[in-house]
What does this fold into?
Amino acid sequence: MNNKIPNFVKTNQFGLLILVIVFICIFSFSTDGFTSRFNIYALSRVVALDIMIGLAMMVVILTGGLNLSLGALGVSAAMFGGWCMESIGIPISITIILVLAFGSFLGWINGFVTVRTGVHSFIVTLATMSIYFGFMTLLTEAEAFRKLPEAFTDFGSLKLFNKYISPLLIISVLTCFVLYYIFKYTDIGRKLIAAGANPDAAELSGISVDRMFIYCHMLSGFLAALAGIMLTARIGAAIPSMAGHLGFDWLLPAFLAPVLGGTLLSGGKVTVFGTMLGAILVTLINNGLYLIDVGEFWVRFFLGIILLGAVLLDRAREYFTVKNSIVS
Amino acid sequence: MSDYILELNNITKNFPGVKALDNANFKLKKKSIHALLGENGAGKSTLIKIITGVYNQNEGKLFLNNQEKSFSSPNEAMNAGISVVHQERNLIRRFSVGENLMLTNLPKNNLGLIDYYTVAKESKKWLDIMELDIDPNTIVSDLTVAKMQLCEIAKALSLESKILLLDEPTSSLSPQDTKNLFALLKRLVAEQDVSIVFVSHKLEEVFEICDEVTVLRDGKNACESEQITNLNRQKLVKLMIGRDEQIIKSKKDIDFTDENLLDLQSINTDLGHKNINLNLKKGEILGLYGLVGAGRTELIKCVLGLDKINSGQILLNNKEIKIKSPKDALEKYKIGYISEDRKKEGLILMHDVLSNAGITVWSNLKKILSFLNDSIVYNKVDPYVKQLEVKTPSYQQIVSNLSGGNQQKISVAKWLASGTDILFIDEPTVGIDIKTKSYLHELIIELSLKGTSIILITSDMPEMISLADRIITMKDFKVVGETINNHSYEEMSSSIMRNIHE
It folds into this structure.
């Protein structure tokens, strides 16, 4: 309406940034210890993981699909990593490469089955979630790997920037920049977005949509595996239940971050930094509510409410896109 | 006072940055068929949306039966007796005809359940008035496109509508169905006290059934309630576009004994094409004519590898080729396809102009590590977007915000940019204003003169006869005739219709 307002202000990210600042202010004043070095360090470790799983979900939402197997996949990859390091003694760097490849492979299975059967990825990943988690539990006999190399676990508890920030957060933020670069400045990134926005039009324009969708699922697996490694480093052990039963604990932040960030559930739009801000907001609320001491139940309650609100926001966004298109 | 059923006086409607309507008038006489014409973006849709309560005007008044009204929702307008039959079907495809007709007021029995007997009986009444031989229990998706259209009109009648707005009602109908529809409309006006607002880009139709014409240009009246008898085609076009229409004809000599560039030999497909043989010469425009459902678009999609070819061969320059996907067609064989459905298959509406125009060339433009930025794409597509005179505020504009004509230009531009040797062009001017239409015609001819070989699918007979060098007629997934075009409308159209009806 008003052309004097700079475009940035009208974006979803700006609204999120304001919210983040508002919540930081609220929690700083209303709680003790929110701004303490200990709490900020703890926050940075949690937010690093939330960003990563948010991104892992975002790249599948891009296709108009979902990846429910995210948590199971991430934990399976992490357990594989624990086994590589502890039982076989593979060096850390090679283990990380293997784990990421393994995650991508599990993602490839999700993508391949989705594309070949034409069944919605919701159903496919619901099934693979159970399969991956089941297999992992079977092979590990539900035992954790607790004797990981010290260099690996030390990294997880490293403190940077005057002991305020975990290096895990730096990995997540770097990943954001890499993804942003891919979607903005590469041929393949553009094709992924085009395929997600309108598969028919993309296919007829000479894009192999099936392949793009498989790439998205592989990328999702890759990022989930990376999140798995990060969690292992943070805890200092690879534990089958570290993301809850079937990896459920990851699902809520995985949805919240991209949807709050402005990624359309119908696909075709990515907001990498929006997802990052979304993850930060979720972590803040989570952490703040714990500090206020409202109790576990209320935290979950509020996060559920926020997810519903975010989905409504998603509807509104689509509605306004349609409204805008009428005016021509 | 007056014999107008609907009267809009000095309507002005502002949108951010645009005055969509500027003091426009529209007066609909009782029991008349009134054409509402104008180029895309002239304000027709806005006017219709004000009549049907989707928008409210900023200035001006609306009178229904001499009473001032203002509708705040489409529902209110509908209750006041105003119904729209849209281009897009508004029926629930899995419901029966009867259920669709009675949807807003389903009769219930004593138990509060739907009384299907009454549904059938009541809806039959409306179908009978329209002399439609359809069983109310038929599921809508089993009907032909033409019958669905008629059911929509029946639905409007069942709501006791006295004003019917028909938006491009014939765009997917065959000539025969169109004739039936017009007969019905005339009868409705005569017998049922209905008044009709008719929106169409096909001027022949306007002259055939309308009594009066209102033309909008740039949101203003170019003419207001003019008697159709005072007008002819030239005058009408001049009113719409503000200048005389240019008629184009392809003038070129194709040597039909030349070697074939593309050759389809005895193609049978999964979709039911039987023994299709056709060939395309270099620089030729080969027309594929047929009624809706003749299997033309489907054939092209099979050639592009989207559906399976069961037997037969495709030769390119006398070498057999296998096209696995549109990607294959574009990258290996330089074959492109401009879809008939620009909204679903041609464009990514939610993305901007630059990424829509550049989508076919990304692969070619990418640098090391698949690097590609906006300015590389811009440099490549800009000449084509400029050449096509696409009107857009910027390359960052979302395509769905552009007018239909400009959208179509973008879906053409991306294929020009890709530099294909062979282009399949499917219904290039459906729902496009006259100015853009003749522009696209010129462009297609120019392309073929420069050596691009084109297979043109169109159901618009005048378009086919002015553009094609040779016309293949298809019916029921078979080729039923081939004629070299001599650009004489009478001869060609009767020869094509003979092919179809033999």
User: Anything to note?
Assistant: The radius of gyration of chain A is 20 Å.
